[in-house]
Hints:
- Chain A is an alpha/beta fold.
- Chain A has a single domain, classed as 3-Layer(aba) Sandwich (Glutaconate Coenzyme A-transferase).
- Helices cover 16% and strands 24% of the residues of chain A.
- In chain A, the strands form two sheets. In chain A, strands 4-3-2-1-5-8-10-11-12 form a nine-stranded mixed beta sheet, with helices on both faces. Chain A has a three-stranded mixed beta sheet with strand order 7-6-9, with no helix packed on it.
- By secondary structure, chain C is of the alpha/beta class.
- Chain C has a domain at 19-100 and 152-220: Glutaconate Coenzyme A-transferase, CATH 3.40.1080.
- Chain C has helices at 9-12, 34-43, 62-67, 85-92, 103-115, 178-184, and strands at 21-24, 48-51, 71-76, 97-100, 119-122, 136-139, 142-147, 152-162, 168-169, 185-195, 215-218, 225-226, 229-230.
- In chain C, strands 1, 2, 3, 4, 8, 9, 10 and 11 form an eight-stranded mixed beta sheet that branches.
- In chain C, helix 5 (103-115) crosses helix 6.
- The longest helix of chain C has 13 residues, at 103-115.
Amino acid sequence: MTGLGRVELAQRIARDIPEGAYVNLGIGAPTLVADHLPDGLEIILHTENGLLGMGRAPEPGAVDPDLINAGKQPVTALPGAAYFHHADSFGMMRGGHLDVCVLGAFQVSSSGDLANWSTGAPGAIPAVGGAMDLAIGAKSVWVMTDLLARDGTSKLVSECTYPLTGVACVSRVYTDRAVFDVMPDGFRVRELLGGATVAELESLTALTLRDRP
Amino acid sequence: MTGLGRVELAQRIARDIPEGAYVNLGIGAPTLVADHLPDGLEIILHTENGLLGMGRAPEPGAVDPDLINAGKQPVTALPGAAYFHHADSFGMMRGGHLDVCVLGAFQVSSSGDLANWSTGAPGAIPAVGGAMDLAIGAKSVWVMTDLLARDGTSKLVSECTYPLTGVACVSRVYTDRAVFDVMPDGFRVRELLGGATVAELESLTALTLRDRP
Amino acid sequence: MIDKTVASAADAVFGIEDGSTVMIGGFGRAGQPVELIDALIAQGAGDLTIVSNNAGNGDTGLAALLARGRVRRMICSFPRQHDSWVFDGLYRAGKIELELVPQGNLAERIRAAGAGIGGFFTPTGVGTDLAQGKEERVIDGRRYILEHPIAADVALISAYRGDRWGNLVYRETARNFGPVMASAATVTVAQVDHVVELGAIEPESVVTPGIFVDGVVAVPPRRWVDHGRFVGGVDIDGEPLEVTR
Amino acid sequence: MIDKTVASAADAVFGIEDGSTVMIGGFGRAGQPVELIDALIAQGAGDLTIVSNNAGNGDTGLAALLARGRVRRMICSFPRQHDSWVFDGLYRAGKIELELVPQGNLAERIRAAGAGIGGFFTPTGVGTDLAQGKEERVIDGRRYILEHPIAADVALISAYRGDRWGNLVYRETARNFGPVMASAATVTVAQVDHVVELGAIEPESVVTPGIFVDGVVAVPPRRWVDHGRFVGGVDIDGEPLEVTR
């Protein structure tokens, strides 16, 4: 079994975002999803630092230092965009106005707990940014991640051992091997990717997984 | 002894407002103060319904239905004005950003309690508007009122008998007979108006008044 | 293509159900979404809880809705105006419930609902009758009371310009409660003087981003009359208003 | 005549005292008031508490202030950036205190200070290490923690245009924390690209009304460089930026 690459996974996630959705793609890998949204569909991207209607990266000669995304990379704004200040921007999140946000993860628990801001390693510089706000803020919180960490351990766990970002907040996990829904009784396989089987996934995660209905 | 008229009292109050002050004049009689602010001094008027930099009443032909004050009368906006929504407008008040507000009163107590929103009469329609927000919101809360109510009782009292608008919030009371400061130990006469004497004021109010220092 | 424009006010209020909580923008007549209220009257929903700063003026708009007996409960700050006789009569007859909220607490409670705040401590109202039954706490030496959010099923607001994504700008003091109400309702409908092309509203100047708006309805040019009497005014393009009656 | 314009950044930061709490606008480099920070460095105040989303980039601006040992404590959401080596070093050496606040709680706590809110219940951070020691309450079935306002003695922010009354508009995502910080400090100073005539900013489009602003300082046109390397960009008038080093 071979997992999907980052780009393929971003494409897979992009397919599940409907027209008209308000979407926040956090920072890091999930921002790749923006590049694979279907042409011709209007999907409105939110960035925590005060913009709805975020467009793609600018041409090299047209970089504008005042126009950046949450990852501090230069972006553009679409016709119909709106700027607002930070309290308003996070009010949008916290108030449940975003349809979807896509976040990275260190761990996701079977009850939907998310750990993605700190490994708890001593001496590390703690930094949380908007992660905790996003985790509790969108109608649907999706995670994009490899199923396994670099050390081979599963990122899907029965209980998070890393410090939590949010409690019972994740509704779906897109991994390189499968898409999982977080159900009241734990993870349910929604879709197998890259040739994986449920048995393989159970072996890799050491979890009992419900299969597709 | 003859008390000052409304207009003279408004003029008297206007003289105490320094250039650069941000001022809210509530509704009713205090709005007269706006007409007597010194020419050539820039004093910025706030109206609770979302405007800083309120100007005078418009010419009859230039009334604009969207541009009104807290009393729902047509007004104008000066160059340098700003519009904002109600949560921002009352955040300005509650956050202590207004220098002065001038309010009417049914009663003011010697500890600065204000009663100006309800007589508590049975069957009256209760209505509070922005009175309670203004009472606690400005750096200086001034009251403009006749010393005596229509029934001849004093509006300056040891304790309010009408329902309170705010507790220990009034710092100065401008009446037709005198200006009073509210001090930790009660009312102090700041200025006598219209030929009043402290003895007369004590007689009218049935209060022991400190005289000017 | 996202298109939040709605053909008529009637279409916009079609789904409002009996028993709903409906926010209605405006401060006095400024910003009151009269055409949407008229459509709501025609639509027929009743047993409503209305959240609005005032309780109607004259016999039109919100006052007309009240007069039809459609409103069970008003949440407002200032129901007593010189021209609020409809509310006055209902209240004195015991035919309507009233929750009176200081205006700034009303605005902040609506904002809290829109911004996902579960409650907040405010100094407004402390020590007054309107604080009765509310939790009080001293923070840094100052007294506060705890207030909770006010959310709604529907917000009906009035704005100046809107685009097909639902971005709105307002006009002068008609802005008032529109932006916070738009954020606090499950469904928000704005009547606007003009629907403009996407991009015609400068992104720096958008007041209500479209994320808060579900429907945008263009309404005919406005008139400013008071009990049927023309009281002056210019329209949104600066032209003198005609006498309409 | 009200005139809040200040001749120089040095004049604007003249009165900042040792031990002050200073808010510094910006998200990364966007909206960071570099010239005001440089003036603060030159002015010499120390033992500062700094409230800012990040903890400095490269060796300039806030990072330079940190490098001089002027900051006792940082309140921020995201001190760990690829170019935040100055803060990293101080933190690892135990030479700076850190209060880490989720970004939305940070913005809302600053807004609360500006709006006179004594505290608020937020769902952000519930059940995490950052909720330790904070009061938790279930409201309408959802868990919240109580957060308190963050006020400051001084706010240093960057805006696009300002007038002599202190009205400000920002530019794109450089707006970020500027408006809430302006409202939450005893003294707020804004550096702006352009001082314009009173009335030149459309009243509908003012983002920070002058009531929140004490000083407005015009600064020279900006450059966008990263560690001395030109990384592209246009200036505020759309002209390509020159390479500065």
